[in-house]
Structures are given as C-alpha cells and as structure tokens.
Amino acid sequence: RDVETPYSGMLPGHVAGVYSRREAHIDLNKLARVARARLIAGEVTHIDSDAQLLHLKDGRPPLPYDVCSINVGIAPSKPAAYVTPVKPIATFAQKWDALLSRLDDDASFRLVVVGGGAGGVELILAMVARVSAELRRRGRSLTCLSATLVARSSELLQGHAVGVRRLLTEAVRRKGIRVLLSHEALETSTDNGEKVLTCRHEGRTVSIPFDECAWCTQAAAPEFLSRSGLDCDERGFLRTNLKLQCLQNDIPQRVYAAGDCSTVDGHPRPKAGVFAVMAGMALYQNLVADLRGEEFVEHVPQTRLLALVGLGDGTCVASRGDLALEGEWLYRLKDWIDRKWMWQYTGGLPSLDEEEDVEDAIASRANALDVLRKTPMRCGGCGAKVGSNTLTRALSSLPDVPSSDRCVVEVGLDAPDDGAVVAYDDTRLVHTVDFFRSFIGDAYVFGQVAANHALSDCDAMGAKPASALALCVVPYGGERQTEDSLRQMMAGARKALDEAGCSLVGGHTCEGSELALGFAINGSIDEVLAKGNLQQGDALILTKPLGTGVVFAGDMRALADASDVAEALQGMCRSNAHAAATLRRFGCLACTDVTGFGLIGHLAELCRGSNGARVRIDLNDVPMLQGARRLASMGVVSSLHPENLRARRAVANHSEGIEAGAAYELLYDPQTAGGLLAAVPVDRAA
Fold first, then answer.
1. 557 close to 376: Cβ distance less than 8 angstroms
2. How many other C-beta atoms lie within 10 A of the C-beta of residue 197?
C-alpha cells in the first residue's frame, strides 16, 4: 500500500528531527527494480486462500498466487476520532509533518500520548524534544507546551527490568512530562470545540483536553486477516508453524507470514520489529524451498532482545533482561545500527546504471550484438517511439496514397496530425493508433496509461472517441500467468475507455518478450482542432507537467524516488478529455498532445502548420515534475532524447537554453500520456 515504507526503529528519531523523511523510509519502488520484482501499489481487502486469490481495493481484478507471503504489520488497537495512531507508521509520519506546521500559531500546544510501554515513552520524549526545538526556532516560549503521558498500567514499561523503568521514568519527569498512571483511555470527543480524552481512573472518569493525541497502545491485527479463511489466534493474528507456514484447520498452506501480523504457534512474542527482522532469512529460505521442492528450515523466535530507547536528547537507555544502562554512547550505537540496516536497502543497493560506452563499441568494429548489448537501456512508453526525423524520412519515401471513391481523406500522411480525418458521405471520422511496450510492473496501471495515451489524440483534435480495437502483447509464460497478465492489463484499459465513453469492440493478442499494448481508436468529429491554426497574440497552455520520460528513465536505473513515479503516474492516468472540453469553451482553435517528440518537437509542428509562426516560451512558466528536474540535473535522459534534441534547430536561442540546464533539457523529454498543448486567445487565457 505504501511505496515509501518507514522503518519503525527510526520513527522516534524522525519525530525528534534527527533523521529526514528520506533517511527514515525505504523506497520500495527502487528495491523492486533492483530485485527485478513487480511492484503493485494496492491495498489487499481479502485473501481467498481456497481459490488462491488476493482481492484488492478500488475495483481491481484479483491477483492469483501460487505461493504467498504476508508481511503487513499491524493496525491501531483502538482507533478513535481526533487521535493519530502510531500504527500504521506511514500515516503517523504524514500527520506529524502536518502537526509541526501548526506551531506557527500563537496558541498553546497540549500534547497527549496514550501508551505506557517503551514505544509510548520513546515517542513522547521525541515529540517534546522536537516541539521544544521548533518553538525555540520560532522565538516562542516553551511555557506554551504541555505534554501528558497516559498509561493504563500502574507503572511505566511493565515487563522491563526495574532499573530500566527507573531510568526512563526519571527521563520523562525530567522533561516536564506529566504522567497519568492507571488511567484507561476510553474515548475522545469534543466539548465546545475543544478536543477531550476521557479516561477511567479508580472508578471515576477523568477528562484530559488536548490539541494533539498520539495513540501508542497495544497493536491489533488488520481486519482482513480474519476473513482469509486462515487460522488466527484469539487476537486475530495469523497462526504459523515453525516453518512460518500459515495454517488452515491446522494444515500448513502455501501461504507464509512473519513479523507483527503473525504468531508462531507455541512461541508468542511481543509485537516488535526485531522479531520480524530475525525471521526474514528463515522466511526467504522457506519461500525458495517451497518453489524448488526442497527441505524447510525451522525458526524459533528469540526469547530476549536488546531494546535501545532514545530519550530525544542524544542519549539512550539499553534494556535486555536485567541489564539497564544509560549513555550517549548507547545512542551512537543505536544510530549506527539503524543507519547500517537502512543502508542495505537504500544507498547499498547495486547500481542499475549503464557504464558501457557505445561509441567505443562502434569504434572497435564490434559486431551488432555487442553494440546492442552496450547500448543504454531502452525506454518504454512513448520513450520507445521512433524519432521524428527517422519517421519523416521513412514515410516520405513511400508513394502517394491513391484516392478512393468510398471516402475522402481530409487529414492524412500529406499533412500529418494527431489522427487521420476521413469523410464518409456526410460523416467525418477520426482514426488514430498508438502502441508501446510497458515501462512499469503493474499491468493494471499500464493498461490505464496506454488507453489514456491512445484516447488523447481524439481529445487533441476535438473528436469524440467511439470504439477501440486493442493490440496486446503478453510475455511468454504458462497459461495461468498469461491469462492474469491479459486480465490485469485489459481491466485497467477498460477503466479508462469506459470513463471516456469509448467501447472496446475487439482486438488481437500475441506472445512476445515484453508486455505491450496499443489501441486503434475511432471517433466522430465536427470541427477539427488542427495543428495549423496558431494566431498572432495567442497564449499557449500546457495541461500537464513535463518529465515522464526522464522519471521512468531514472526508474529503470533505480534512481527515481517512489514519490517521483507516483506523481508521474497520477498525471498519466488522468484523461485529457476534461481539459480539451475546457479549452474549446475558451476559444481554442489549435491543439496537439505532447507525447514522444517532446514539447519542442510538438510545438515545432504547430508552428510549421501555422505558416512558420514564431512563439516565445518562458521556462519559469512551463510546468515540470519535481522529480524530473532532479533527475535531469543528474544527467538522466530518455533513450529517445538524443533524437528529439535534433529539433533544437527550431529554437532561435538554443545556446541560452543550454545555460538554463535541466529545465531546458526537459523541453525535449518524450512524454507518455502527456498533456495538451493548446493556443487560446490571450484575453481568454488568464
């Protein structure tokens, strides 16, 4: 569900301001790229263990599995209104950032944390340290901050040694934190606009007003686990045997689980990340053994663990059995352990960048296969198009298209536009086709993008799409895998086509080395929005930010952040139909969609079709994906970029553009499912 997953061991440090968000999160998109695994960003709502299907949120088709590993963590045990549960951690991290922004107000700040275990103690110490630092930075008095720790138990950190409880209790009181023991949190509500936590204490109710309340109590199992048909314990956590296999009526299944969401039969343990980490190798070995038909290993969770609890001030308390230590050196040890562990999944990942030199291979007269091997990774999507100049030269060598009595070609190869316009008697039809190979692992999302991209030509010309024929290429594989790939991809495509009112009426499928999808779209049109109607004084409007080519070129090399990819896909899954309708209402007469040839290439087409019109672009006004700017500044470009760069001859001040750096480079970036580039009378553009 969360493509940037936080490391729980670093959460208090992130809250305290020691670690940045990037340092405390693992980018699953990069990890999947390096591991050559498909990443599907979705939320499981149900596991059908009998049919071996995972049901997902948002209407996606279910995902079949042969072997499944469940590692979903935990949920808050008592979610309530107006509170921020610490679990799931990703949600808490986002809300914490929003909380800090409220410190700009002059009002007092009342902070409450519910939970008297190690997690609650460490969290409130980190929160007080961070809020105090932020108040000082703003020049505000610390007297406006009050912090309260609420615990149901009669003492803090039950289950830890006496010395540990003493050290951490002293640390809490030293920071001026009020501690309410034997207070059972019941509910939260509002009273005359003020948020209130109601607790039970010695048979009576106690009200505690707050501005922010964090819930750090005992964890609960995600609800969908109990609906899976798999055996669960009395608290709803999955039961596993020593081989980490889930059970169904006490019979081991080809479903595995580790970490907080499960309990090993006969070996219950607290819900702590260290147990998940230690189970990781056994889980991996048994997944491999299952697939290969080899012997399993058994995993007995350790009975003792070293807990390092940060105090928010650069010191730490160590707890293991009867051991109780406090010191700055312990914090340095904790920091080293956490950073080293995170490095394995972030900075320590192997590079996917290409280092081979194609020019050297050609110069040495290497054979064709060697040259291809040394060629940088080829992009998918519209970054896989043939370049504009190559296409033009190839088509210009063909003879003229013969005329036909059955139809009149109004827009065709002699003056190419986003689609062909053909008149049949009194009916004008638009025909357009697009096709490219996949650039992401999620076939469902790829289907949406491919369909939106194909529909965009109709949007750019002012046509209404009516029907679509699909051309599908699915990777070689077993019948079940092929069926699933096709189902996922076409379900995503249908989502986009159905929303556009375009009927999928047929198509063709074949096997190939990579997933690929294209559509031939037919539609009707009254007035054509052509590429040749630029008028003097028109304002240019671009409806989506540039940069998808660079983002996915970086993604192929595991250089793009998950947030970069998510932002790009969000735009690529958005139809251009609404933008096209809006542009027409405001007097648009010239339009195209920005796709494989980049903004400069498609803008040059507009200019050539308008008798050599000249336009001025202000780089500061061109919308660009933030991740694309960062990646372009690192030298990342799409494999089609060099071909697109030939359009620089159309730029009068190309040398000045080069000095602008990455922003100028992105004007040549090939776009997949890009936005519309339209001309609107300047008095109607504001």
1. no
2. 25
607 tagged catalytic = no
Q: Which of 662, 522, 523, 676 is nearest to 592 (CA)?
A: 676
Q: What is the pLDDT of residue 90?
A: 62
Q: Say which residue the tokens 């556009």 belong to.
A: 500
Mode of pairing for the β-strands spanning 307-310 and 316-320: antiparallel
Handedness of CA 348, 630, 28, 437 (dihedral sign): negative
Three-class SS of 352-406: CCCCCCHHHHHHCCCCHHHHHHHCCCCCCHHHHCCCHHHHHHHHHCCCCCCCCCC
670 φψ region: left (φ > 0), alpha (ψ -120 to 50), beta (else): beta
**pLDDT at residue 67 in the model:** 96
Whether the pLDDT of residue 365 is over 80: the answer is no
Q: What is the mean pLDDT of residues 57-61?
A: 88
Catalytic option among 246, 261, 379, 382: 382
Q: What are the tokens at 272?
A: 């702590």
Q: 548-556 and 626-633 helices cross at what angle (nearest 10)? A: 60
Distance CA 273, CA 307 (A): 11
Contact 293/271 with Cβ under 8 angstroms?
no
Q: Which two tokens stand for residue 284?
A: 């991996």
Mean pLDDT for the stretch of residues 259-263: 92
Pairing of strands 53-56, 44-48: antiparallel
| Structural tokens at position 565 | 């990819």
pLDDT of residue 420: 84
Q: How many CB atoms lie within 10 A of CB 71?
A: 15
Single out the residue of 558, 371, 584 nearest to residue 461, CA to CA: 584
Residue 275 reports pLDDT greater than 80:
yes
Give CA–CA dist 663/640, Å, rounded: 17
Tell me whether strands 178-180 and 145-150 are parallel, antiparallel or unpaired: parallel
If one counts every other C-beta atom within 10 angstroms of the C-beta of residue 611, the result is: 8
Mean of pLDDT over the chain: 87
C-alpha angle with apex 545: 544 to 546, nearest 5 degrees?
Answer: 120
C-alpha to C-alpha distance for 213 and 112, rounded to whole angstroms: 5
Please state the φ and ψ torsions of residue 422, each to the nearest 5 degrees.
-130, 135
Residue 355: exposed, middle, or buried by beta-carbon count in 10 A (0-12, 13-18, 19+)? Answer: exposed
More confident residue, 590 or 424: 590
Amino acid 74: pLDDT: 81
CA of residue 307 relative to chain centroid, distance: 32
Angular region, 157: left φ>0, alpha ψ -120 to 50, beta rest: left
Q: Are 304 and 320 in contact (CB under 8 A)?
A: yes
CA 319/CA 321 separation, integer angstroms: 7
More confident residue, 465 or 393: 465
Question: Where on the phi/psi map is residue 159: left (φ > 0), alpha (ψ -120 to 50), or beta?
Answer: left
- Cβ neighbours of residue 334 under 8 Å, at least 6 residues apart? 308, 310, 316
Are β-strands 516-524 and 503-512 bridged in parallel, bridged antiparallel, or unpaired? unpaired
Query: Is-above-0.70 flag for pTM?
Result: yes
- From residue 376, alpha-carbon distances to 352, 353, 373, 380, 636 in Å are 11, 8, 8, 13, 11
637 phi/psi in degrees, rounded to 5:
-140, 160
Distance CA 259, CA 299 (A): 12
Omega of the bond prior to 402 within 30 degrees of 0, cis? no
